[in-house]
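>> received
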Amino acid sequence: MKSLLAPLTGLFKTTFSKNIAWTFMSQTIVACGGLLLNVLIGNKFGTSGLGVFSQAFTVYILLTLLADLGIANSTLKHIAEYSETAEERNKIFSSALLLAFIISATLTAVLLFLIHGFDIVLYNEKATLCITFLLPGLPFFILNRVTLSYLNALQKMRLFSIIHSIRWVMLISMISGFILFNFSLSKVLLAFLIVEASIFIWVVLYLIFKQKLPLSIDIPWVKEHLKFGTRVSLISLLSEGNNQTDILISSFFLNESQLGIYSLASSVAKGLLMIPQVIAMNFNPIIANLWAKRDLENLQMQIKTIKKKLAFISLPLILAVCLAYPVFAKFIMTDERFLQSVPLFYLITVGVALCSMFIFNGSFLTMAGFPNWQLVHVVVVLVFNVLTTSVCVYFFGLTGAALATSLLYIFVVFSLYFFIKLKTGLKII
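>> returned
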């Protein structure tokens, strides 16, 4: 038993062990919450309802990136660089909050006006209605993202993780209640607004009164956030576009029911990247810090160590979930059509398994001060993704969607290796 736990124990003995432990706990709750969200919606509204939700939520996620405009990434990078200067940190954080609110609130108002005033339809009327119920929560989501970036940069992962966990516990609890009272799918999504607003009010009050954090707006930092944020916002948008391309493109070739079947398999498979995401959250500020000091030897050692440990942690987890998925699809999901997702899940997992050992380096170029090259990498991946998904879904339908997603993860690993080595000389494989 000890030998099986040795890799996990070894990883947790690194300098950021406590941060990983806390983030792992919260990400476990997030992963379970995401799974429960699919189960609740899929069981209540069927494969078609899950398909409509996937369409609406995909648009919402992409809109959060437009509303963010790279401010969260700018906050993370600059707070990490000024981690020892309290006065400057406060200016960076306060300026980011102000800018984030102005941009996100303006975008939300414009979108709601266009949808209601000009009867704009996104995908279909059902998906558009769901989007209008999600949009009011957008400004609060962005403000929470900036706040979490601030905590992440300071490596206050205990508070970061508690906030993340409470958000998902509240969200699942509220959605369960709404479903119990037979709310429509669109009205169920009001839970996102209520939860995001509640979290923001609580966190801001906590930081101001408990942590004695003074808010200090600084115009030069507002300009710097805009400058850096606009450089990396396109990267974030295209990166998330890569994650959502399967739903976006598949919507043109598959019906709502088929999309729901694929969405279940895809969301569970992508959830297997939870552990690398935990590592990335903690590793990103370390990249920025070590690169600023030009401590490349230490940085390469960190990459090598994490990569080896992940191989012993992620792969057994993926195998266990592969064994459990057919049971989940048959006995947990009430719609028998979800059984069609089993082979799709296995196909996607092939790419996920390889990606799980290397994707913690996903933001490496941005954190190392090469956002333009990060953008080049993202564009290359996006072009590959769009072409592969379009061709595979057109010719092979549901199976093609799963095949394209698996190929995407494999391509990401090798392309990321090429660009990081090109600009930094460091090797991730």
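>> Residues 1-9 have pLDDT under 50 and may be disordered.
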